[in-house]
Amino acid sequence: MQHVKIPQDRIGVLIGEGGETMREIEAEAEVRLDIDSEDGAVAVETVGDPVRGLKAPEIVRAIGRGFAPEEALQLLEDDMMLFDVVDIDAAARNKNDLKRQKGRLIGEGGRTRELMEELSGASVVIYGSTLGIIGTPPQVDAVRSAAEMLLDGAPHGTVYSFLEERHNEMKHQGMQYHRFPGSGSS
Q1: Measured between alpha carbons, how far is residue 179 from residues 89, 105, 122 in Å?
Q2: DSSP E strands: which ranges in the chain?
Q3: Any idea where the K Homology domain is (predicted)?
């Protein structure tokens, strides 16, 4: 049994209308979820395939970090799919700086976040003080590096060039490059 804590305002998303999302996660990941809606604690108990069960806490965490349930469930599609989080708060000096750093990652009209998704092939969500990434290891690595460059103060143009380069490398290596259905909505 594993325990995951998610923000209060994401519990409804995890449960879904009439418990629909929760049941889908339980069925897909072969687990049982025990959700405490008072404090956001989620107990994850594997009831089927242990390998699929290992991904369940990550799915719950991803939903807690702002991903839509459909995007979080992509973690089950492939053993290579990863969920990673960049802590924006750690790079910020204070609340105003946190807002500024988030703004740099989101970009004007959400363009920077969109480009991170488009050029890496990963799903990217900025929620609270974190940037969440779902994708294959090279995709996650590209987004994490781009985010860290921005948080370190690199100009957006430099970061876009880096992402273009990574995009071309991934395509050149014949990596499976695909846009996730349903991502890119902002």
Answers
A1: 28, 20, 8
A2: 2-5, 31-36, 41-46, 82-87, 123-127, 130-135
A3: 1-81, 82-155
Angle, helix 95-106 to helix 137-151, in steps of 10 degrees:
130
Could you give the count of Cα atoms lying within 13 Å of 4 in the half-sphere of its Cβ?
23
Which pLDDT tens digit goes with each residue over 134-169? 999 999 999 999 999 999 999 999 999 999 999 999
Nearest to 70 by CA among 105, 31, 20, 107: 20
pTM of the model: 0.88
CA angle at 37 for the pair 36 and 38, rounded to the nearest 5°: 90
Phi/psi zone of residue 115: left (φ > 0), alpha (ψ -120 to 50 degrees), beta? alpha
Amino acid in the structure at residue 127: Y
Residue with tokens 């103060």: 153
Q: Which domains, from first to last, does the chain contain?
A: 2-76 (3.30.1370.10), 82-178 (3.30.1370.10)
Question: Quick one: which H or E segment has residue 132?
Answer: strand 130-135
Angle at 61 between CA 23 and CA 18, to 5 degrees: 25
